[in-house]
Amino acid sequence: MTNSIGSNLSFFQTKINVDISAYDEAFLRNIVDSRKIELAIVTNKEYLNYLGSCEEEAIVFRSRLTNSYSEFFRNPLTFAYLEQIILPQLIEKKRIKKENQIRIWSAACASGQEAYSMAILCDELIESKKSDINYLIFATDVDIEEVSKAKKGVYNAATLGKVTLKRIQTYFTPTGDDFIIAPQLRNRIDFSVFNLLSDQGSCPPASIYGNFDLVFCSNLLFYYEPVSRIRILERIGNSLAKDGYLITGETEREILKGNNYREVSANSAIFQKK
């Protein structure tokens, strides 16, 4: 076995039943290096031998391949720009065109915080403007356990650090040591399992035709090698409405700029096709 993790494709496919070909080499190396430290293993060869012989370690490795971390209002600058500029413009545009729905896709939604954050913004703005426009959010992830958590909408108090007290009081109900999202938000979100690199279509089947005003694909692209990134961006691009917005993570802005997208405001991580 060589030092390059990506060169051992057949090992990962046969030993732990996972295709790592789509992942960035540096990302894979970081997973292996962190596990070596945690297990007090010195070399890659020793770790791969251990991985191939231990099902529990295979489960751990597969779990590390998915981005399951999320939080409410994760990037404050992005959400502030959405709240103050993008969403009000969208609502006005829908009113002028006599359209009645804002369509949003939260791709790689993890346990749902991103989707619920957007639902809060939409609900607040529509209420404040007394608008008859509604919104629908499709939230997807490749991890069925994360999707199941998201559907329940139950979160520990420690995860609500960026949620204002007013929003907690309006949109959450205490239940023991946790808080549960209000039904009015959960009813506006369709959660489902969806693989952005599969051949099952360009967007979640429940959305039927895509045409999204906003798509979130945050903190995901840098896990994949360039060809896979392009596949994901093409799929998302095909699902966007005309003049729709793609929101990414702060660290992924240069990837978008190099793939025919322009940032609508400096450091906002909000993009439109050129």
How does this structure look, described?
This protein is of the alpha/beta class. It folds into two domains: 5-64, no CATH class; 76-273, Rossmann fold, CATH 3.40.50. Helices cover 43% and strands 18% of the residues. The protein is built from eleven helices and ten strands. A seven-stranded mixed sheet has the order 6-2-1-7-8-10-9. Strands 3-5-4 form a three-stranded antiparallel sheet. Helix 3 (44-53) crosses helix 4 (55-64) and helix 5 (76-97) packs across helix 6 (113-128). It is globular, with a radius of gyration of 20 Å.
Give a short summary of the structure.
The chain has 274 residues and is an alpha/beta fold. Helix content is 43%, strand content 18%.
Number of helices: 11
Low-confidence stretches: none
> What pattern of helices and strands is seen along the backbone?
HHHHHEHEHEHEEHEEHEHEE
Sheet of most strands: 7 strands, mixed
Number of domain modules: 2
Which band does the percent of strand residues land in?
Answer: 15-25%
CATH class of the largest domain: Alpha Beta
Mean pLDDT: 90
Distance between the termini: 44 Å
Structural class: alpha/beta
Going by CATH, the homologous superfamily of the largest domain would be: Vaccinia Virus protein VP39
Strand ordering within the main sheet: 6-2-1-7-8-10-9
The helix content, as a percent range, equals: 40-55%
**Looking at the structure, what is the overall shape?**
globular
CATH architecture name of the largest domain: 3-Layer(aba) Sandwich
- What is the alpha-carbon Rg in Å? 20 Å
> What is the CATH topology of the largest domain?
Rossmann fold
Number of strands: 10
